Amino acid sequence: MGSGEGGRVRRNTSADGPRLVGRERELLRVTEALRLHPAMVIVEGESGIGKSRLVQEALEVVAGTGSRVLLVACPPFREALTLGPVVDAVRQAVRTRTRLAGLELSALAGTLRPHFPEWAHTLPPAPEPLADAGAARHRLISAFTELFGLLGVEILVVEDVHWADEVTLELLLTLASRRPQPFSLVLTFRPEEVAPDSLLLRLSSRLPGHAEVSHVRVTLGVLTVTATAELVSSMLDDEHVSEAFAAFLHERTAGVPLVLEECVRLMRDRADVVRRDGEWMRRALHEITVPPTIRDAVVERVARLGPDARKVLLAAAVLGYPADEHLLGRVGGLADDADPAPAAEAAVAQAVRIGLLTESAGGSGRVGFRHALAAQAVYDGARPADRRAAHRRAAAVLEAVRPRPIAKLAHHFRLAGDIARWCVYTERAADVALVSGDHRAALTLLHDLINEPSLPAEAVAPLVRKMPFLAFTDYARRTEAIDALRDVLEAGQLSATDRAAVRGQLGRVLFCLGDHAAAAAEFELAVPDLGEGTYIDAWAMTVLALPWVGPWPVATHLRWLELAERFAAGCELLPHERLTLQVNRMTALLELGEESGWALVSEPADGVSEPQLAVEHARAALNVGDSALRWGRYEEARTHLTSAVRIAASNGVEVIRIMALVTLLRLDFLTGSGQGLADQARAWSENAEDPVCRLEASLLDTQLAVVAESGGEHLEERLQDIREEGRRRGVIAVWLESAAAHARLRLAAADAEAAVELTEECIRLIADKEMWIWATEIAPVRVAALAALGRHAQADRTVTAFAQGLGARNAPAARAALQECRAICAESRGEAGPAARAWGEAARAWAQLPRPQEEARAAGSAALWARAARGSGRRGGRIGYGNRLSPRESEVVRLLLEGMTNRQIAEELSRSPSTVGAQLKSAMRKHGVTTRTALAVIVSRADSD
Fold first, then answer.
1. Which of 492, 591, 800, 831 is most buried by a 10 A CB count?
2. In the 8-state DSSP scheme, what is residue 216?
3. Strand partners, 282
4. What was the pLDDT predicted at 114?
């Protein structure tokens, strides 16, 4: 030792773990909350800021109350097993605290069998599997909640919740929502690692909440210079630390406790910390460097250790969770199956002594890194070959454990480069996720598997069959997954049967995403290779029977239904599968305009106990309600849609519930009932998860704006966007209705040419598919536009085709629209008497539905033509004969009577075509008509009077 200025200098030879400093206020808040059972405590902050240390200190303070604590740590594994950390914690609690046989488990506990196979002799029988992911998750969460209560858990601590799987987050959300809350919850997470769509945001946003729960949310920040000095002092015999030294460390570590601690330990190892005149200080600034990151600090400290200690540290980093000496020794290659080798014990002791590893709380004999940052630094600093070898040894050790830790094995085999074994355990993890209702996790795992280039071709199709296609709706990587399915098909290595299975699954995915045209193309290619007698094949046939899937006429769709019947007859069906096919068949017939579909409609089924059947009953009620709306059977529509909302809500099927609510809003809009429709439609157009639901809500929002005459020129842009998206997705109803609304705006602006163009493809689709029941909205505006252009023969042909296509169907909405088309044709021919009668019949037909907007329009036209037929009547007000037109409007109407087009009138009067259109629109509004022909007839009769 040497001497320095002013006195004796000695080197520090040990640095103890630091005290908790600078967190007194936060610690008090957390401990007070936990004493007021139950509590909801959330601790957030960046990596290394001290979240876990704060929780540990708080638990030690309240431990004297005898509270039972269950600690759950979420690991950063790519192959996260559904509820894996919770399962591990429960398994440990049962092993150390009580015997499972002594718990009074209900039948619900049978749901836990896939997660605790070692308890098979104790748990009740497993219930029937549920097809609906939401229902399956709800049942599983309820079983875990019951188990927590039986174990006497009073505080549930979940560390690093940002790494938790979706079902674990749903479990926590359910527990936090229970009233009374069953026990205290303590959660820690890093805000910067929370995904924008994570359920954790919903969970954390619940604060503050109910009065009976003590709520605390703590956000940890960096330490001050003063707190930095106190922390360093606690590591150096509690002696004074110079202000300059503290400021220096604070600047270099940004006041992050973990980085600060590691840097102090490194400086001690380098002898960069000296004690002079009773206080600790650094050497001269030019003689010392402090690594800017914890990675550099840890790597340098590790390099000073012997080879055995480095192997143990790599083993701890590879495992990612606290482990005993034996396991660390085996993974580090220092021990075999027998007792730990002395080398392993010594290596672990050295790593603990220098503070890189620390013993877990509770005296369990397990050690691990103090923080994930340090573990990652050790892992990154190791050679790739050494990392793979350690993962290989970890996998070998864990395969002997019963029950096997599936997610951990998948993780280790993947990083060991053993793809074959990784595939085995990843598929098993996906199976557990499917049973648990965690379809997003299952889809992620299966997606990774089919992306593996070394996977044999014959192994791909079974994996694809397992992919839960409904989960694609909110799957962030769905585009990648769809591309992966297409890559599998294009590789050309599948058998005909497997190719059909993969293509059929791709079709189902595209269908659920609303891309019906692309789905139809895949189904068409899959059908020739499909086998006989499978439910999935029959399901695909019923999907192809839906009118919006494929460009075929009704006869072709009906052929698909016949094929579905043949396929279904050749296989054994579960009750919910049979009901699914029945609902699909009924839906297809009703949407195709077949009266026989109504014979399949039954009364809405409430109180169905089987969740899978309940989901299908909810879907049936939604589809019947939607079809009844299209047919114009509005009372039936409201009955079934209301039932759909009720059944879906009671069974947690949110997509069906929201779709039914949006359809009810449309029914209210058409029938002139309900309040606040615009606000509700706008909310669903922005917030609904299902893309088709958002699209329908956007259309309704825009239609309401048209009626309110708000939105100006942007309305047409919105309608165009909706029309194009509806057409692209194959959502026929949205496509037709948005085109009709847009065409009406163009016709009102005296732009009949644009109205005809907007309706051209729509009316051709209806004619080609022979589905005139879909013409309710589009046919009247199409006929009016044709009449306005003087294309009377074409308008008459459209009406004739409409009448013949509708036949004798009991479709009140389409019949009212047909009667309006007839009235428009009579009006365009200037036949006042027939026009008055036709408009009167149209008004009565609309009134019976009811459709008050259409009724008012028809009634007004009927009254107008009745007065014209009598050759007398009051002139004024809305009718606006002769002298009620402005001089400029009169000039435009005069030239209209001479047979000029808008452009010719504009050239004659030296006005812009848009000005002429606006003046004609004003004249038509004053006379209560909607076409140029009707305006000409009314003005001519008025002039003759």
1. 591
2. E
3. 273
4. 84
Is a pLDDT exceeding 60 seen at residue 880? no
**CA-CA-CA-CA torsion for 323, 326, 330, 331, nearest 10 degrees?**
10
Q: Helical H runs in 829-874?
A: 832-848, 852-870
Which residues make beta-bridge pairs with 891? none
- Asked if 54 and 27 count as a contact pair (C-beta separation under 8 A), the reply is yes
- pLDDT at residue 159 greater than cutoff 60: yes
Q: What's the CA gap between 154 and 183, in Å, rounded? A: 5
Q: Return d(Cα 839, Cα 837) in angstroms, integer.
A: 5
Please tell me the distance from the alpha carbon of residue 208 to that of residue 200, in angstroms, as a whole number. 15
Instruction: Give the C-alpha separation, 640 to 605, whole Å.
Output: 10
CA distance 171 to 183: 13
Q: Where are the alpha helices (DSSP H) in 275-418?
A: 294-303, 307-319, 325-331, 342-353, 372-381, 384-399, 406-416
For residues 599 and 31, give the distance between their C-alpha atoms in angstroms, rounded to a whole number: 65
Distance of CA 936 to the CA centre of its chain: 55
Mean pLDDT for the chain? 83
Q: Report the alpha-carbon distance of residue 185 to residue 152 in Å, rounded.
A: 14
By C-alpha distance, which of 588, 536, 537, 517 is closest to 559? 588
The per-residue pLDDT for range 259-304, each reduced to its tens digit, is: 788 778 777 776 666 666 566 555 544 444 545 566 776 777 788 7
* Tokens matching residue 558: 């009906």
Distance set, CA 195 to CA 114, 165, 174 (Å): 28, 12, 20
Count CB-CB contacts under 10 A for residue 878: 12
pTM: 0.58
Distance CA 941, CA 234 (A): 103
